[in-house]
Structures are given as structure tokens and as C-alpha cells.
Amino acid sequence: MKTIKKLILSLVFALVLTACGSDAPVAPVAVEDAKINVIITAIPSGFSPLKTNDSASSSINSQIYESLYKREMDGSGYYPLLAKDFPVCSEDGLTCTITLNEGVKFHDGKELTADDVKYTLESIKNPEYGSARASIAASIETVTVVDPYTVELKLKYPDGVLLAKLAHTNSAIISEQADTAQDLMINPVGTGPYKFVSYTSGSEVVLTRNEDYWGELSNIKDLVITIVTEPATAIARLETGEADFIATIPVDQIGRVEAMSNVNLYTKEGAGITYLGMRTTVSSNEITYDKSVRQAIAYAIDREAWVESLDGYAVFSRSLVGPRVLGYTEEAENFGYPFDPEKAKELVAACGCGDEEIVFLTQNNPTLVALAEMIQSNLKDVGFTNVVIDAQEFATYLTEATKDDRYAIGIFTWANVTGDGSELLEPNFTSAGANRIKYANPEFEALVLQSKTTIDLDTRIQALEAANEMILEDAAVVPLYNTFLIYGANKRLTNVELDPGALFYVNQMSVTE
């Protein structure tokens, strides 16, 4: 079995302290071949990184698969992972060469080669493949295998977001051999530090350490990821020790977790956003086609009151491109529509539409349901008397959110794994992405395209700021709050951290006693 450096160092340190005498402090000792239980609060949609884009699936797939590059845990940049170094690009930015680390193997024993990178990127590009994030490969014209460990990308334009996209969980490299022989959605094969063992549908995923992993390993051998959709039940398991780590703790459970003697509570400002989206086309009710109605809805929502109710565990911003995302500017705090219920009442009276039904889609997550109820109350206060909340279980919500004529307004979340504004705006609000609110604005799309088709940072930020202002002024979206990451772990679990996109990596953690 591969030497586990963290375990050896911990054991040596403990022996040194013991030799110093009984009065010396006792250092934590690493537990060999530990087992932990992680709780996630939603059912994953599958185990292919290319075909899934929900947070539950990403939490699991991030343990199994790896991308060419990886985001720093503090969000400050990226570093090579499966790639040996950063891309080497031509002066015009249209040709980029990437060299792979040698000796990396997939879980089925096949060596990772440039052919797998080519297959992965071309699958993402292929509309028939079913990629959840085709925009990741939108700039790539061709992928050429130069040698077994080198690929050359020919780009349609200089891509300022290329590195961020190649670090995304949805561009993790898959094995062509495995993908053509089996369904990765139910039987995943990656290069990561943990291998798939089993999945009990809607209940738990079991992973085990990949002893042939090419990198450094943790002392955590077995990993059980349990799905518990009821927050109170999840927190109870943390308290009793049945769970070692929960990546999402609701604000109303913080006090309970803080009182647990066996648990550490962690908080960190994230890059994710929760926003209200309004259908400007294919709405369940054409009421939201009218910009003045959307403006009335935007004016009616007391967003700051909601953030205050979260006791500081959220960040208020009027900008869609949040404060921890590339493209944010202080000027964006003046964009959109502030809380002004009197103005909202005037607009509702003018349209004479206050009694028309507005179908309001959301997840059945307790926090988001409470937020939806607050918004419903705000809208009722200004004259919208028939707002119908439709709270769906997460997997159903993901499907329903994409359907035409299904709802008029909805609450949406975006983790922003890359921390890049183009990677927020393009997949969510243009024809190149899922665009759940069906926003259609050619000028906006042109600005988003401009923001990603240059490597000049100033040009990118100017285009993102203009696109941000346009969609907010159009009242297609209302930023509600920016996420604060709140998570908890048993004190025996160390090196616990989420990245700004709310991803965790068990291989970076260790268990002590």
C-alpha cells in the first residue's frame, strides 16, 4: 500500500512528545485506515461529471474524478492537477498546449493519456452527448493529440476563462474506455483519490480509498456519504457522532451546533448567489413579460431584511456578479431596483394585474421555502394577491425549472465553482446555457461573449459590468443574497475546509484520536 505521509508524520510527532516525558502535551494521533460519514442534504442526479451539474452530484464526483486544473481553496487562483503545468499559449491566444502528468491511472487500471482529454473535451462539445455545461468547451475549435501526454487546443477566440473552465467539476477528465463500456452515471470511473463502491438510491453512496492514486493519500480509507434531506435530522446525527461532516448547516441550526462539545463549526464567505429569476418569455403567465410588472416585483422585495434575519451569515449585494466573483465592481451596487414598496404599489395599480396568478417555483429546502414565503408576503403587501408557491423536491425542481410555461418566477442558486462572472452569466442567462428563466436579449449576449473572448482583464471586467447592469435594469433577476458557507465537523476530523464554490475534498482531511 502507498505510504501515507500524513499518518507517518503524525505518529512520529506523537512519539517524540511521549519521549519528552509525561508532562509534555499529547499530540493528536492519526487513525490508520479511518472511516468517516459525510452527510449531504440532496439526492444526486448521477455520477458522471459531464452530465450532472447539481451540488449533490458535484460533492460526490469531486472525490472520484479530477480536472486538469484545480481552484485554490481560498479562491485566489488555480493550480495544475492532472496537467503538469499551466497551458502554453501562442501570442494570439488561439493555440494552447497542455502537458499531462505521467503515471496517472483511472480506477479500472487504464493509464490517463491525451486521448482521454480529447475524448472528454469533444464529448462536452458534442450536443448529442448530453453535457450539462457545453459552454465549457464553447471556445475550443479542435483538440489534437500531439503525443500520449500532450494535447493542443485550437481556439475560436482568445479565451479569458479557459483556465477556470478547465478547473470546473464539469470538465473533469473521464476515461473513453470506461465511458463507452458502461454508464458513468451509475458506475463512475475516475482518477481521483476515492473509488466508487455502491449506491443505495436516495440513501447513501459508499466510496473507498484508491490505493493506486498517483498523489498523496489521506488516512481516511472508507467514506460513506449519507443523504439526509431533513436538516434537523442531519444535525442530530452530527451531535450523536453518527456523522463526521456536514457541508451545509442552516442558519437556524448554528446555535445548536455551537453547543456541541464534539463538533467544530466553520464559516466562510462563499462565491455563490441566491437570486429571484423572472420569466421574460415562456412564462406560465404572461404577466412577467411586462417589464413594469417585473420592476414592481423587484421593488417589493425587502432583501436586506432577509439578510439581517440570517444573523450575519449572508452577504447583501445589489449586484448579480457578487463581491467575490471576477467582474464585480462597486458601481454595481447602484444597479437594479432598491426596496421601494410605494413605487411597487404604483406599478401594480397601473397594470391592474394584482389578482392574476403568479406561480412561484422553489426547492422544498426549509430555508428557501422560508425565503419564498417572505417574498410572497412582500408581494402581497404591494398588491400581488395571488402568488402561489410551488415547492419541489430537489431532483424534481431541477427538471421543472427548465420547462416552458411552468412558472413565472423562481428562486435559483448558483455556487459559482470557478469564481468567474462569465461563468455565471453565460450558463444561466444566455442561449449557450441552461437559461432556466429563458432570458432573451441579444445585446446582453453580445456583452457576455465579449467578456470571455479576450484575455485582457480590463476589457473583460468592463463587459461584465455592462452585462450585469443590463440584466438588472431589465428586472429579469433580483439578487437576493450571497452565500456564507456554514459547515460542521466532528473534532476528530482535521483540515476541514470548503472552497468558495462550496466543494470539499475528503482527501485533504484526516482523522485523529
Percent helix: 25-40%
Cα distance, first to last residue? 22 Å
Strand segment tally: 19
The major pleated sheet works out as:
11 strands, mixed
Q: Supply the number of helical segments.
A: 15
Please report the first level of CATH classification, the CATH class of the largest domain: Alpha Beta
Name some characteristics of this structure.
11-stranded mixed beta sheet, 22% strand, Dipeptide-binding Protein, domain 1, Dipeptide-binding Protein, domain 3, D-Maltodextrin-Binding Protein, domain 2, alpha+beta
Would you write up a description of this structure?
This protein is an alpha+beta fold. The chain folds into three domains: 33-44 and 192-262 and 491-511, Periplasmic binding protein-like II (D-Maltodextrin-Binding Protein, domain 2, 3-Layer(aba) Sandwich), CATH 3.40.190.10; 66-181, Dipeptide-binding Protein, Domain 1 (Dipeptide-binding Protein, domain 1), CATH 3.90.76.10; 270-484, Dipeptide-binding Protein, Domain 3 (Dipeptide-binding Protein, domain 3, Roll). The chain has 15 helices and 19 strands. The chain has helices spanning 5-19, 55-64, 114-125, 162-166, 176-181, 231-240, 254-258, 291-300, 303-309, 341-351, 366-381, 394-400, 422-429, 442-452, 457-473; strands at 34-40, 69-71, 78-80, 88-89, 95-99, 140-147, 150-155, 194-200, 204-209, 220-227, 245-246, 263-278, 314-315, 358-363, 387-392, 409-414, 477-490, 493-494, 510-511. Strands 1, 8, 9, 10, 11, 12, 13, 14, 15, 16 and 17 form an eleven-stranded mixed beta sheet that branches. A four-stranded antiparallel beta sheet has the order 4-5-7-6, covered by helices on one side. A two-stranded antiparallel sheet has the order 2-3. Helix 8 runs antiparallel to helix 10, helix 13 (422-429) runs antiparallel to helix 14 (442-452) and helix 14 runs antiparallel to helix 15. The longest helix is centred in the C-terminal third of the chain and has 17 residues, at 457-473. The radius of gyration is 24 Å and the shape is globular. The two termini are 22 Å apart.
